[in-house]
Each structure stands twice: as structure tokens, then as C-alpha cells.
Design a protein that fits this description.
CATH class of one domain: Alpha Beta
Shape: globular
Structural class: alpha+beta
Radius of gyration: 18 Å
Largest sheet: 8 strands, mixed
Bound molecules: coenzyme A
Length: 246
């Protein structure tokens, strides 16, 4: 069944978004596949938070507001001449806008802005249940319940890092998810991404699973496995039903 972009969440700015990302050519795809190598393994930590339970997220070093991403935000987040990581992130943002427009990915893109200047200082996505099977398999997404949403692709420009912006943004997006009727937000973060793990945990998410994505034959075969971490005594567990992942 086809999906409309943003089913269940208010429409974002996608109609006006810069969907002029270069469509990958066959050669691009071949290079990407070759870059994946004959074998690869990526381990991420699954974190979750029950957003119906209030949580006092630490504030950033300057006042931050959350709003939908606008097309003109990208120039501030990824300025001309930015580093390779930022370039990759920008390309990913454009690719995602395309997927949202085509209805394959029910995601909403947010920016956190410096409330004093309206300058964007962080970008992050909130994805709902209903991703296309192809994307879900390729990205190793969990099967989300209707009242769950997944935080994805947090990015803070280098000049704004370490000021608590991601932490504040995760808190604000979690609050917004609650106001949209969600019960739980989840995130999967690479096990070695210390700033991102710390930011998510500071915003009240707790570790509860490990996802291992293995790929064989230049990414032709991809397998994602989810393992639940043992509960920590005395800690409120996110409460995801067993078997919710596939
Ligand atoms: C991950 C990222 C979004 C964090 O953004 P940020 O706005 O700098 O995060 P915060 O300032 O809220 O910091 C979060 C925590 O990480 C810590 N931290 C920040 N940079 C760090 C670093 N280089 N090494 C270790 N810890 C770091 C902060 O001290 C803070 O912990 P604390 O509150 O206990 O002090 C940013 O580093 C980034 O954009 N990285 C590149 C893209 C990326 O990896 N995205 C994540 C994809 S899931």
C-alpha cells in the first residue's frame, strides 16, 4: 500500500524543500557498492524513552527553539566549503527530503535554532511507522508501532558542538512526539559515537538493545539483528514488546 508523506504528522516543508539532489547514476551506485566491500559489520546501541513520562532535559548553553526545517536552513547548517562529513550529511538530508516527498519515508525534519538570532544550529529527523520495506531493510530499521517514533541523523555544525544543542534538541523533539500522541521514541546510535550516545542519554533515553547490521557481497545481502540488553534493576524500562523488531 502506498504511503503519503507525513501520514499521522503535520506536513513539513517538503513541498518547497530542495529536492534537486542529484539523482544517483548507475555509476554512483556501482561505486557505492564497491565502497561497501565484501563484508562489513556495524553495531549500534538502541535507546528509548517513554515520552509520556516528563523528563527535565538539560538546557543548551544558549536558548534553543525547535521548528520544522526550511529549505533555506541548509545553507546555514552546511555552508559552502564545509568539510566532507557535512557534505555527506547535506547529501543525506536532500536524499531524505526526496524520500519523504515520494512517500517512502514518513519522516519530519526539524532544526533547532538559536532563539536569539533564529540561526539554525542543529538538524534531526523524526520517523514514524510506515517506512517502505526497501528502506527499512537497507537501513536496518526496527518495525515501529504506531505510537512510536525514531530519532534519526542528528547533526550539529562543528562551530555549535559541545554546547548542549543536540541534548536540548532531542528533549524538544521527544516532547513534540508526546504532543503528537507518541508513547515512545527510539534511536539507534553507532556504539563508538560517544557524543551522540551521551547527548541521547542526557536527554533521558536509556539503552535497551543492540543492533548488529552485517552486509555481505558489497552490500547485496544485508542482515540486521536486534538483541535486547538485560534490564537494569530499578530502572524504568522502555517497555517495547518482545519481537517488535524484524
Ligand atoms: C553527535 C552530535 C550531533 C552531538 O551534537 P552536540 O550538539 O555537540 O551535542 P551536545 O553538545 O548536546 O553534547 C552531547 C554530549 O556529548 C559530549 N560531547 C560532545 N562532543 C564530544 C566529543 N567530541 N567527545 C566526547 N564527548 C563529547 C558533550 O560533552 C555532552 O555530554 P555531557 O552533557 O555529559 O557533557 C555532533 O557531534 C555531530 O553532529 N556529529 C557528527 C554527526 C553525527 O555523528 N551524528 C550522530 C548520528 S546518530
Amino acid at each position: 500500500m502506498g504511503l503519503r508523506a507525513n501520514d499521522g504528522i503535520p506536513r513539513g516543508p517538503y513541498r518547497d524543500a530542495p529536492t534537486n539532489a542529484r539523482v544517483p547514476t548507475a555509476l554512483d551506485r556501482v561505486w557505492r557498492r564497491l565502497g561497501e566491500g565484501p563484508y562489513g559489520r556495524r553495531v549500534s546501541i538502541g535507546l528509548g524513552r517513554d515520552v509520556t513520562v516528563p523528563f527535565a532535559t538539560p538546557e543548551a548553553r544558549f536558548p534553543v527553539l525547535l521548528r520544522d526545517c526550511r529549505p533555506d536552513d541548509l545553507a546555514a547548517l552546511f555552508p559552502r566549503g564545509c568539510d566532507a562529513t557535512a557534505e555527506r550529511e547535506r547529501a543525506d538530508v536532500l536524499w531524505r527530503f526526496g524520500k519523504v516527498e515520494s512517500g517512502e519515508q514518513p519522516s519530519r525534519c526539524f532544526v533547532a535554532v538559536d532563539a536569539r538570532t533564529d540561526r539554525p544550529c542543529h538538524i534531526q529527523w523524526l520517523t514514524e511507522a510506515g517506512c517502505g520495506a526497501r528502506i527499512r531493510r537497507a537501513a536496518g530499521f526496527p518495525a515501529l508501532e504506531a505510537d512510536e517514533a525514531m530519532l534519526e541523523n542528528a547533526y550539529t555544525p562543528v562551530g555549535c558542538r559541545g554546547l548542549g544543542v543536540m541534548t536540548a534538541a532531542v528533549g524538544l523533539i521527544a516532547d513534540l512526539a508526546a504532543s503528537l500522541g507518541k508513547r515512545r521514541v527510539v534511536a539507534f546510535i553507532d556504539e563508538d559515537n560517544v557524543p551522540s550516545l551521551r547527548g541521547a542519554e542526557r536527554a533521558g533515553l536509556s539503552r535497551w538493545s543492540v543492533r548488529t547490521r552485517t552486509r555481505y557481497g558489497f552490500g547485496v545481502v544485508r542482515i540486521s539483528r536486534f538483541r535486547r540488553l538485560p534490564p537494569i534493576p530499578g530502572r524504568r524500562e522502555p517497555g517495547h514488546p518482545e519481537g517488535g523488531f524484524h
